[in-house]
Specification:
By secondary structure, this protein is of the alpha/beta class. It has seven helices and five strands; from the N terminus they run βαβαβααβαβαα. Helix 1 links the parallel strand 1 and strand 2. The protein is globular. The termini are far apart. It binds zinc ion. Zinc ion binds next to helix 7.
Length: 206
C-alpha cells in the first residue's frame, strides 16, 4: 500500500456494503475485509471480491475463512434450515445468525489494529433495526466502548444507519454503484422468495 490504511470496510457483497465501500473508497487508504463463514450465498463472496477490484486498487482486500465446515460455527445454524425458517417475508428475525456481526466485527478489528486504522465501516441501515440487534447504533457504540477499554480509538462508521433500503439504493445509484454486481439472496440463487430477495426487489423498484 502506498499509504497507511485508515479505513477498514466490512464487506458482504450485498447492496448495503457495496454502497458503504463506494463511500469509504473515496479515500484510497481503504482496505476491505470479506469473510467466508460458510454462508449459503456463495455468490455474494464473488460479488464482494469483484466490488473491491472495481472500487479500490488491487490488493486492498483481506479474505478470512472461518472453520465453518466443522459444523461448530455458523454452518450449524445456517445449514439445513428451510425457507420458512430462514427469512421468509416478515420473518426476518429468524434470519438472524447468532453472534455473526460480533465475530465479523472482531475480524475487522483485528485487521484495523494490525494496520493501525482508526475506522471500521459497516452497512447497517434502518431496515435492519427491527430484526437484527447487532445492526443497531447502540450495538456499534458499545463495540467502540469495548475498543476504548483496550486503549484502542476505533470508530465504527455507519453512514447508512438512518437510511431505508430504498434510500440506500437511491444513494448508491447517485454514486454509480452497479447493483447487478451485488447479491442478497440467502441462498445465493436469487430465489425471489426469501426475505432478502423481497427487500431487494422492493428497494430496487423506482
Ligand atoms: Zn432469495
Amino acid at each position: 500500500l502506498g499509504r497507511a490504511v485508515t479505513r477498514v470496510v466490512l464487506l458482504s457483497g450485498g447492496m448495503d456494503s457495496a454502497v458503504v465501500l463506494k463511500l469509504a473508497a473515496r479515500d484510497e487508504s481503504t482496505i476491505s475485509v470479506v469473510v467466508d463463514y460458510g454462508q449459503k450465498n456463495r455468490a455474494e463472496l464473488v460479488c464482494a471480491e469483484d466490488l473491491v477490484l472495481r472500487s479500490t486498487r488491487r490488493g486492498h482486500l483481506v479474505k478470512c475463512r472461518l472453520p465453518c465446515d466443522s459444523g461448530v460455527i455458523f454452518g450449524a445454524v445456517d445449514k439445513g434450515r428451510t425457507l420458512a425458517e430462514i427469512g421468509a417475508p416478515g420473518d426476518s428475525p429468524k434470519a438472524y445468525t447468532p453472534g455473526r456481526n460480533t465475530v465479523l466485527l472482531a475480524l475487522a478489528l483485528h485487521v484495523a489494529e494490525h494496520e493501525k486504522a482508526g475506522e471500521i465501516w459497516v452497512g447497517a441501515n434502518r431496515d435492519d433495526y427491527e430484526g437484527y440487534p447487532d445492526c443497531r447504533r447502540e450495538y456499534f457504540d458499545a463495540f467502540e466502548t469495548m475498543c476504548a477499554a483496550m486503549g484502542k480509538a476505533i470508530v465504527i462508521k455507519t453512514p447508512l444507519i438512518h437510511f431505508s433500503k430504498k434510500q440506500v439504493v437511491a444513494l448508491g445509484r447517485d454514486l454509480g454503484v452497479d447493483f447487478n454486481k451485488t447479491s442478497s439472496c440467502y441462498f445465493g440463487t436469487e430465489c425471489g422468495a426469501c426475505d432478502a430477495c423481497v427487500l431487494r426487489k422492493h428497494a430496487l423498484e423506482i
